[in-house]
């Protein structure tokens, strides 16, 4: 579903979440100044056509703080991420839609036809100030994809941004 308030101290265990687009283990679509904090998805299956994520299918400026994902994520038509499927970061500045993605842990199996990422499947543009907004994440994933050019254990659609995330541990 759609979330404009945030989620804290929640979990999903041993569940199958199925939808069309913007499907996540905790939230389908995060809007605005929301947070998913100290929450996790464990031993679950999250699947749909596109914009599929372990925690959220898509997000606009949302924060992901101290979360954990251990699930199987599948996007049949593309764009899947261990944490977030699609990250709308078009207008991101320190004052406008500042997303913070830190202290997250994802150990998942991600399957998508394209734009497949261990952390984020795809996003609109390069990261804004990743040294401040994206750090201390741990990613250990198994990726299956038809398009290796848009797959990575970090950010699938923007592989070039992976080196810009400090203290992010990718295996």
Helices and strands, with pairings:
Layout: E1 2-3, E2 7-8, E3 11-13, E4 16-18, E5 21-24, E6 27-30, E7 35-37, E8 40-53, E9 56-60, E10 63-65, E11 68-81, E12 84-88, E13 101-102, E14 105-112, E15 116-117, E16 120-123, H1 130-133, E17 134-135, E18 138-145, E19 151-152, E20 169-170
Parallel strand pairs: 1-6, 2-7, 3-8, 4-8, 5-8, 6-9, 7-10, 8-11, 9-12, 10-13, 11-14, 11-15, 12-16, 13-17, 14-18, 15-19, 18-20
Description of the structure:
- The chain is an all-beta fold.
- It is 2% helix and 54% strand.
- It has one helix at residues 130-133; strands at residues 2-3, 7-8, 11-13, 16-18, 21-24, 27-30, 35-37, 40-53, 56-60, 63-65, 68-81, 84-88, 101-102, 105-112, 116-117, 120-123, 134-135, 138-145, 151-152, 169-170.
- Strands 3, 4, 5, 8, 11, 14, 15, 18, 19 and 20 form a 10-stranded parallel β-sheet that branches.
- The radius of gyration is 14 Å and the shape is globular.
Helix residue percentage? under 10%
The Cα radius of gyration reads: 14 Å
The secondary-structure element order is: EEEEEEEEEEEEEEEEHEEEE
Distance between the termini: 31 Å
Mean pLDDT: 87
How many β-strand runs? Answer: 20
Structural class: mainly beta
- The share of residues in extended strands comes to over 45%
User: Describe the biggest sheet?
Assistant: 10 strands, parallel
Low-confidence stretches: none
Give the overall shape, derived from the CA principal axes: globular
DSSP helix count?
1
């Amino acid at each position: 579903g759609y979330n404009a308030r945030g989620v804290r101290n929640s979990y999903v265990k041993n569940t199958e979440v199925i939808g069309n687009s913007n499907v996540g283990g905790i939230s389908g679509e995060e809007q605005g100044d929301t947070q998913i904090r100290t929450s996790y998805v464990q031993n679950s299956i999250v699947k749909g056509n596109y914009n599929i994520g372990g925690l959220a299918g898509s997000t606009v400026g949302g924060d992901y703080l101290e979360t954990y994902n251990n699930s199987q994520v599948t996007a049949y038509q593309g764009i899947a991420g261990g944490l977030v499927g699609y990250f709308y970061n078009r207008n991101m500045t320190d004052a406008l839609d500042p997303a913070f993605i830190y202290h997250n842990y994802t150990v998942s199996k991600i399957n998508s036809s394209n734009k497949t990422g261990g952390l984020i499947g795809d996003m609109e543009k390069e990261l804004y100030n990743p040294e401040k907004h994206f750090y201390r994440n741990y990613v250990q994933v198994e990726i299956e994809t038809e398009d290796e050019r848009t797959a990575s254990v970090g950010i699938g659609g923007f592989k070039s941004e992976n080196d810009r995330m400090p203290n992010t541990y990718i295996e």
